[in-house]
Automatic annotation (TrEMBL):
Family matches, as Gene3D superfamilies: AhpD-like, Jelly Rolls
Keyword list, A-Z: Signal
Molecular function terms from GO: peroxiredoxin activity
SUPFAM superfamilies the UniProt entry points to: AhpD-like (SSF69118), RmlC-like cupins (SSF51182)
Source organism of this protein record: Phocaeicola plebeius
Domain Carboxymuconolactone decarboxylase-like: 39-125
Presence of keyword Cell inner membrane: no
Range of residues in the leader sequence: 1-21
Name of the protein in question: Cupin domain-containing protein
Length: 273
């Protein structure tokens, strides 16, 4: 009896895990556009192709399914609205601007140069906002009212990646706008004080992280307020896929100082999504 109960429990766990691993894709385009004219085709498109095949994410992830689909469409020379839709879906499923450029370049050698040219025109529109370098910096500056400022060279040794610093106010309460490029974060550190002290952060633009030692990381979005008591080991910085900026307020205290510690390892940081 005990063995049967254990086997039954194991089967339930395996089944539940499989169900949880799947992600049901809901699609209504078939019914929206062809429901009255071709109801069976609409059903097959929405319920079978997307509701069943695309939803088998426990067998093949959405990112890989997008890659297979856009490769197939481009290879056949299909560069109509269906390719645009699947390029948009590929972007949502995690394929980056750099990756789609490399994917289409690779396809060109097997499917043909003209097909790749046509696909690139659509891909450029889909990934138009994903710019890099100075263009990305300028685009991020347009998202917020505070300046990005100058490269944070004075504290560069305590950061992984490029950060920028802009003083907002040096009177009454010192306030700085700190901007991080994607993937940039500061080292673990502690704000020391014999009385009072600490720091307050307010998210300004983009997406970032704050983490105290021994606790899960907390996402920082525009408007998020983080209170950091003196004596608490922590770090903060940008998400891997986003520029990020926060205001940093120095809390008044006695005998205040910063103790900079070890970097946040790539292994630790890569676990954050």
């Amino acid at each position: 009896m005990k063995i049967q109960m254990v086997l039954a429990l194991a089967a339930w766990v395996i089944n539940s895990t499989t169900i949880m691993a799947q992600e049901t894709i809901k699609q209504t385009a078939g019914r929206d556009q062809l429901g009255d004219f071709a109801p069976k085709f609409a059903e097959l498109n929405d319920d079978v192709l997307f509701g069943e095949v695309w939803s088998r994410t426990d067998k093949l992830g959405l990112r890989d399914r997008s890659l297979v689909t856009i490769t197939s469409l481009i290879s056949q020379g299909i560069t109509d609205s269906s390719l645009t839709y699947h390029l948009q879906t590929a972007k949502q499923n995690g394929i980056t601007r750099t990756e789609i450029s490399e994917i289409i370049t690779h396809i060109a050698f097997y499917a043909g140069w003209p097909k790749a040219w046509a696909a690139f025109r659509q891909a450029k529109e889909v990934w138009a906002e994903d710019v890099t370098g100075e263009e990305a910096k300028a685009a991020f500056q347009r998202e917020m009212i505070f300046p990005i400022g100058e490269p944070n060279t004075a504290f560069a040794q305590y950061f992984i990646g490029q950060s920028y610093l802009a003083p907002v106010s040096k009177e009454q309460v010192p306030v700085f706008n700190v901007t991080f490029e994607p993937g940039c974060r500061n080292n673990w550190h502690i704000h020391r004080a014999t009385k009072g002290g600490g720091q307050m952060l307010i998210g300004v633009a983009g997406r970032g992280w704050y983490q105290e030692e021994g606790k899960p990381a907390v996402q920082i979005l525009p408007g998020t307020v983080i209170h950091i008591p003196a004596g608490v080991k922590h770090w903060h910085g940008a998400a891997a896929d986003s520029w990020f900026a926060h205001l940093a307020f120095e809390v008044e205290g006695e005998n205040t100082s910063n103790e900079w510690l070890e970097p946040v390892s790539d292994e630790e940081y890569s676990k954050l999504q």
